[in-house]
Amino acid sequence: LPIWATDRLGSENGIIGFVTNGSWIDGNAAMGFRKSIEEEFSEIYIFNLRGDQRTSGELSRREGGKVFGEGSRAPIAITFLVKNLNKNRKKAKIYYHDIGDYLSREEKLNKIKEYNSIKSIPWKEIKPSEKGDWINHRNKEFNSFIPLFDKDNKNNKKVFFNITSNGIVTNRDPWVYSFSKNQLEKQMKDTIGFYNKQVEIIKNKELESNKLNTKRIEEIINTDTKKISWSRGLKNSLKKLKKDEFKNENISISLYRPFVKQNLYFSKKWIETPSQQNKFKGKVLFTNGKSSSKPFSVFISEEMINLDCLEKANCYPLKYIDDKKNTKDKSMHILSSDNELNDGITDFIHNLAKEKYGVPSITKEDIFYYVYGFLHDLNYRKKFESDLKKEIPKLPLVEEYENFKQYSDIGKELADLHLNYEKLEKLPEILISGEEKNNFKVEKLRFISKENKSIIIFNSDIKISNIPLEVYDYQINGKSAVEWILERYSISIDKKSEIKNDPNLWCEENDNLRYILDLLLSVISLSIKTNELIKKLPKIEF
Fold it and tell me: Which of helix, strand or coil describes residue 189?
């Protein structure tokens, strides 16, 4: 819209005013746009009304009320672009005002009324950085650190990891994910059978018309969302007129969200973007991806990882398989044992660490855990918050070996804790009532009230109380670990497909009816232990 309006102005002076989604002010994807309007106009005024409700927790509360009520989730900004040819500036002067934290919708609208005129707003002139940041400038020190990986310069081996990958993107989560393995098998057999019928229909139509193309296919296929979820990749498979066959060995376990495992049907026909998840073996640490709206987080898994487990997840393995020699069906996630097992950690960083510290016994695994420990450092996260939102993480090798070893040792403790989160014992102070009724089924876990998070209502019989509030200090992907359990371990029905996903079936099929209750108690313990370990990390200055 601003570009279209600029064309309307042409070579004349004028003012353009917009009320828009405000994410362009600081988003990576809008960097080119910001640079463009700097050169096009003489003055730019941005009134940031906030209200980004794609965030959660404390960040969401700071964003305040939705400016357009329940119908909006995006941040909102009022922008004025002024073209004054008489000022003859190479770049615009940029004036910015942030409406402030924790304001309700009504408070925001009242402030706008009070200002009455653009002249009354207390503007602050901002200076763009070399990288095109207008607000939340990146820290120059960050560039002196070593990247986990460099996607823009693949020949540059001065990085921590040899390989990275995003998480899995399915484009049909309700179909290929389920708490119930039996249900997943049934729904995939049904949808594969439906797909094969479409292949037959297309084959017959092709013989009639001899005109097979994407447009023609889209005219013919059945798009009933209760039968199938079409995507570009699946339509491309359909064009090849090859039928599919359900394979039980394609079902594996995936980490769908933090502390939430589900069964996954991993077949490249039904997974839109498998990334390189099938190459990773064993431990994989992962972080939010670039331009994530969530605060920076890091986690670890030995299962395949969904892209939204941490928003736009970037994954870094300890070990991976090069599948060049793979002779098995490419639709399967199991790679041949003939493939070579490679180190995720580069020789560069391994040799650099041994040379820097004068300790030849340092292993690549030590460095892997060093990274995991370091990325939990709250001082690092705070100082480089803007950088971690906009770039792949970079971190230094600390000066002293003692600090390196401390980061690595605590990183290993954190990794062991987070990988074995289902096995932790409950905190002694936690009180549970109603266990004796042996009703462990859930429908919707909830706090007793919004104001009281010390008590969780598990179901009509079971109540968990005396939960320490510091549990909620451990945040991952924008909310506390405990709140991930409350949100995800409930019965849900997908609106389009009408597929029901019931976590109780996971418990039944794994012969552990207490699983969800024990999981919740374990994650409460994990949160306390994680907080304690983070506090033990070295105190270094950047």
Answer: helix
Nearest to 411 by CA among 293, 318, 346: 318
Bridge-based pairing state of the strands 298-301 and 492-493: unpaired
CA 34 to chain CA centroid, nearest Å: 25
**pLDDT beyond 90 at 76:** yes
Q: What is the DSSP letter of 391?
A: S
Whole-number pLDDT of residue 52: 86
SS3 label, residue 109: helix
Provide the β-strand partners of residue 17. 80
Residue 222: which of 193, 195, 190, 182 has the closest Cα? 195
State the sign of the Cα–Cα–Cα–Cα dihedral 482, 171, 287, 250: positive
Model pLDDT, residue 327: 43
The number of beta carbons lying within 10 Å of the beta carbon of residue 538 is: 17
Neighbours of 160 (CB within 10 A): 26
If DSSP states are collapsed to H, E and C, what string results for 256-309? EECCEEEEEECCCCCCCECCCHHHEEEEEEEECCCCCCCCCCEEEECCEEECCC
The CA angle 491-59-131, to the nearest 5 degrees, is 120
DSSP H or E segment with residue 15: strand 14-21
pLDDT digits (tens, 9 = 90+) for 441-455: 999 999 999 899 999
Task: Give the helix ranges, DSSP H, for 121-262.
Answer: 173-176, 181-209, 214-220, 232-239
Could you give the C-alpha distances from 111 to 76, 95, 114, 118, 211, in angstroms and in order?
14, 18, 5, 12, 62
90 phi and psi angles, rounded to 5 deg? -70, -35
Q: Of 22, 8, 198, 12, which Cα lies nearest the Cα of 98?
A: 22
**Residue 318: how many other CB atoms lie within 10 Å:** 23
Assess contact for 301 and 255: CB atoms under 8 A: yes
Q: Between 138 and 343, where is the model more confident?
A: 343
Distance, first Cα to last Cα, the chain: 42
Per-residue pLDDT band for 132 (boundaries 50, 70, 90) equals confident
Residues in the chain: 542
pTM: 0.88
Q: Rounded mean pLDDT of 383-411?
A: 96
What is residue 338's predicted lDDT score, i.e. its pLDDT? 57
- Of 336, 317, 315, whose CA–CA distance to 325 is shortest? 336
- Is residue 313 within 8 A of residue 305, CB to CB? The reply is yes
Over the stretch 323-344, which tens digit does the pLDDT of each residue have? 665 444 444 455 554 578 999 9
Lowest-pLDDT range, 33-47, 240-254, 373-387, 430-444?
A: 33-47
The total of other beta-carbon atoms located within 10 Å of residue 324's CB is 7
Which neighbouring-strand residues pair with 47? 78, 97
**Residues 51 and 63 sit within 8 Å (Cβ to Cβ):** yes
The CA distance from 256 to 30, in Å, is: 29
Q: Distance between CA atoms of 220 and 217, rounded to whole angstroms?
A: 5
**Contact criterion met (CB below 8 Å) for 376 and 411:** yes
The DSSP letter of residue 248 is: G
